[in-house]
Amino acid sequence: MPRIKLTVAYKGTNYCGFQIQPNQTTIEGTLNEALTALTGTPTAVIGASRTDSGVHALGNVAVFDTDMQIPAQKVAYALNARLPHDIVVTASEEVPDTFHPRKCVSEKTYEYRILNTKFPNPLIADITHFYHYDLDVQKMQAAAAYLVGEHDFTAFCSTKTATQTNVRTVFDITVKRTEDTVTVRVTGNGFLYNMVRIIAGTLIEVGNGRRTPESVKEALESRDRNASGPTAPACGLTLIGIKYQ
Amino acid sequence: MPRIKLTVAYKGTNYCGFQIQPNQTTIEGTLNEALTALTGTPTAVIGASRTDSGVHALGNVAVFDTDMQIPAQKVAYALNARLPHDIVVTASEEVPDTFHPRKCVSEKTYEYRILNTKFPNPLIADITHFYHYDLDVQKMQAAAAYLVGEHDFTAFCSTKTATQTNVRTVFDITVKRTEDTVTVRVTGNGFLYNMVRIIAGTLIEVGNGRRTPESVKEALESRDRNASGPTAPACGLTLIGIKYQ
After folding, report:
1. Measured between CB atoms, which of B9, B58, B122 is closest to A88?
2. B88/chain A closest Cα distance in angstroms
3. I need a surface site. Which of A11, A90, A155, B27 has the fewest CB within 10 A?
4. Rounded to whole angstroms, what are the CA distances from A86 to A53, A77, A80, B237?
């Protein structure tokens, strides 16, 4: 049965995260309903990133298997006609049935956006984290540099994380200011539960002078969640995209 | 009684426009409720621009008169604590009681933002107009140039408009592309009902090749609403700011 890969963009504000849950509106559940209506047979996706409640995506990935007689490239349009306006499939293509969005080696990019102004901007309040104390981007960049590379990120994940290993590789982190917005962009081979939001929350503490860039190195080495900063709010986080080998 | 000027930003998506109406949620009504709660006495604003349902603002202006014993600059913070998250007062200051936000001479700037991509972007769907056919920005700019200056804009306002004169002065129009977004920015001494949205709808028709830039000059001279393009959707429009002499 052919396997179809979907690239999915969504605004997470009104969803209880990606992963399907009983009696909750989720991205996965909404995709499954649209696919089941489209194919006429119960259909479920396998998703790449189980983003949290309130987290957004421009390029999450999901696959499903189908015998449907419709060209793979047209699936995006047919699905969008059945999806609410806050979920958009931006590409669809056939992939080998060995392709698994979580098990295949990938490179993920997230952006955490901070609106660093005196007053909030209601036009983008859902998709940015408003923070009104001045942020020193150079110090944030210096702190971020300590996180690049292969590390045990136990200090930068939720204590609820249950994985075989907390070792991940961060390929790159950049912290940039564009007008009023400070964007933390992180690329890696995988991220632990809440990892990008804890990195963002810790870098904000560096940016406002509450902690030094070096303290981030110490936190990383401690492998102690108490040594890093708070988990920044979900609304600032967007999964930009996932590249597969 | 001191008069206080407010600069107001809002996301218009969930409001039936600025102007107060019975049994409808409006920006003006919400401001009046917050002010009445803050001052403890029935208080009503006079607004500058009565933006339509779904239209946004970064810098609309409103004034109110009060005997309240609170420094004018602090009113913004006190009001924001009482306003929903999609309305933010970004400045408050005392002004002479002769200052009237609609009668005093002003320069208003609006932006109409068009997301010109193959697929919509759900993160910014509320604050942009999605248009997927390629737009030729140079042709749009050439057409826009005909609208600059003092003209009778009867062809570019709703037939419902009831004003003494339809003559207005447009100081400047620019059409720019930044990545996937085409922004039409218009500055003038005043705008008729739906004027910026009709300008945007007409320029989109120029951008997609359905009409020539010169046809915009002809439409303007005809003073006939049927000669211009459609009214572009409200979601793309934002009142950027108002400058007073």
Report:
1. B122
2. 7
3. A90
4. 14, 15, 10, 19
